[in-house]
Description:
single chain, Fic-like fold, 16 helices, about 50% helix
Amino acid sequence: MSRSASxxxxxxxxxxxxxxxxxxxxxxxxxxxxxxxxxxxxxxxRSASPAGRSxxxxxxxxxxSGGPGGSADGGTAAHASGDTAPARAPSGSSAGAAAxxxxxxxxxxxxxxxxxxxVESMRKAVDRLYGHRVMRRRSxxxxxxxxxxxxxxxxxxxxxxxxxxxxxxxxxxxxEAQARTVGAALRVTAEAGQLLSVWRxxxxxxxxxxxxxxxxxxxxxxxxxxxxxxxxxxxxxAPGAEALGPLTETPLPxxxxxxxxxxxxxxxxxxxxxxxALVMAAVVHGELLALRPFGSxxxxxxxxxxxxxxxxxxxxxxxxxxxxxxxAELGRAAYAGAFEGYLSGxxxxxxxxxxHCGRAIELGVRESTAVCEALQxxxx
Length: 380
């Protein structure tokens, strides 16, 4: 996917999947939300929740995500480069050991209160956008503009709230802390669409690559870049620009827990599931926010992973539905509050997070619809 600020080094070596592998530990939040709660479980134990993809085609109207090489809500996932949008097909996920039992807890999340309506509302909004007449000939322009707006919004959520025209105008993103955060978001957004084939085989390798791209322009030569935190290492969202403070005050999971839950997340992403694309994307997003696996830019990476799931699932193959824009528009307080629901692992909390993510996607759709209208009028 071509992006407006792809200034990350292209020849930076990619970490291997083994960099993020580890023993599986701890129950998933998905399991907690779809089975009787264990009153003795800690919030950290309940906050893991992975997602995966399902095989088998289905019409775009199904509103679900797809398996390896397949798509959700409609067909093989296309790179967000303006290629013809593929037909869509379903996918979803399961959870850690539950995946090995043949269970599909992520599909069960789709039946939580409010989630079915959120999935349907979001799907209809996405369908309307893909049906806009501007998308027939100028989809690459819409994709590029969506990427720029997504990066600006993701940086804002990480504490660097710049105006869109300032982001568009600037060429130097290394001068000070906020500029480096905006640069990190731009680089990650540009990179995300180029990693779909790797994502289908090794999501953890993609996560490492995204962190490498995000932090590469901030701490070149830092050995912590592109690998999970080690014991005693902190996690700071935007080095030097932490005015907003952390999204949650919950303690950092220890490295063993991070490794185990990332392994479980990978299993879920590669396992068949009938879960809707929204459910899978929300769970991946929430799990990465909860784990904070890297020393920096975990929010930027988590939001990019949500974007990759939506593209790869086939729901948004041209990457024109920037959920980041919606998350920023809803506000950081609402974002943090919904995320606390994810951390709780309760059915109500998980449902609130998924519904919040669905609303964010709809607002991203509204943003891109405005872009289409501007292009149609000749104003963009």
